[in-house]
User: Which sequence fits this backbone?
């Protein structure tokens, strides 16, 4: 049996400690199905490895479930930035535990995928709440860093999917990313949240670009990150399906308006320069 604790921090610490301790002890034997023991002519029950891997996967599952439950508890009571920031890191840690477990050997693919997708969904939910509550009024780089972390969580999911049995053979980028794209596309809730994040970011940028104090450089820097973010979102889904999605079309339209804003800003700045030159000539 796995011992549990009422204290949130203590429970997670103990689950994490048990996982890494057992992984260190059992990892090599599980991944090789006890090859070193077989070489010594030791009798081995194959169920031993199955039970050990089941135990490790159960630890990762319980860890993730406890983090999700605490997030739900916070949302049901009151948002707290410090708690939210801690939960963001814990979602990363939970995904990393799944990666470490999967790197030993695949046990139950269905449970693994369901667990990691749930963690990523909850992360995006938390990220959107944190933007609304804590980051929407922050300066550009802080906002960019916030959304950059969403791309990092997608990279973590992609790394996990790379360890799953691949259904599309080949060395092309599309073949290597097939399981990742399939995993994302199969979760309508995750796709919805990714679209919402892209829309939230772009609407924020569009609002910022209307500020009279904004410069061409500011708009360009915003636009560079916006393109990067939207491209990553589209690459994470079925390309044809994503391109036809009305929400993605809206995002692309906002990007196009931002590009036009750069042209307008440059034109206004050039007109100001010409006016200053004319005034200098008149004074001369």
Assistant:
């Amino acid at each position: 049996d796995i011992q549990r604790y009422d204290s949130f921090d203590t429970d997670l610490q103990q689950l994490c400690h048990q996982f890494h301790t057992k992984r260190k002890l059992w990892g090599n034997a599980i991944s090789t199905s006890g090859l070193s023991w077989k070489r010594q002519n030791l009798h081995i029950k194959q169920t031993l490895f199955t039970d050990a891997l089941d135990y490790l996967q159960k630890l990762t599952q319980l860890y993730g479930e406890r983090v999700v439950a605490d997030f739900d508890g916070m949302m049901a009571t009151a948002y707290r930035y410090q708690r939210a920031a801690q939960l963001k890191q814990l979602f990363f840690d939970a995904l990393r535990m799944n990666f470490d477990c999967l790197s030993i050997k695949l046990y139950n693919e269905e449970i693994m995928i369901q667990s990691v997708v749930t963690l990523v969904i909850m992360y995006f939910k938390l990220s959107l709440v944190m933007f609304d509550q804590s980051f929407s009024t922050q300066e550009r780089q802080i906002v960019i860093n916030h959304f950059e972390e969403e791309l990092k969580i997608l990279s973590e999911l992609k790394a996990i999917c790379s360890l799953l049995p691949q259904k599309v053979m080949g060395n092309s980028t599309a073949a290597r990313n097939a399981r990742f794209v399939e995993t994302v596309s199969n979760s309508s809730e995750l796709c919805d949240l990714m679209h919402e994040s892209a829309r939230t970011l772009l609407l924020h940028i569009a609002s910022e670009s209307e500020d009279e104090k904004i410069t061409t450089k500011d708009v360009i820097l915003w636009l560079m990150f916006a393109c990067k973010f939207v491209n990553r979102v589209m690459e994470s889904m079925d390309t044809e399906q994503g391109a036809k999605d009305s929400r993605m079309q809206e995002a692309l339209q906002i990007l196009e308006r931002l590009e036009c804003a750069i042209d307008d800003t440059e034109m206004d700045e050039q007109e100001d320069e010409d006016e200053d030159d004319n005034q200098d000539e008149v004074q001369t």
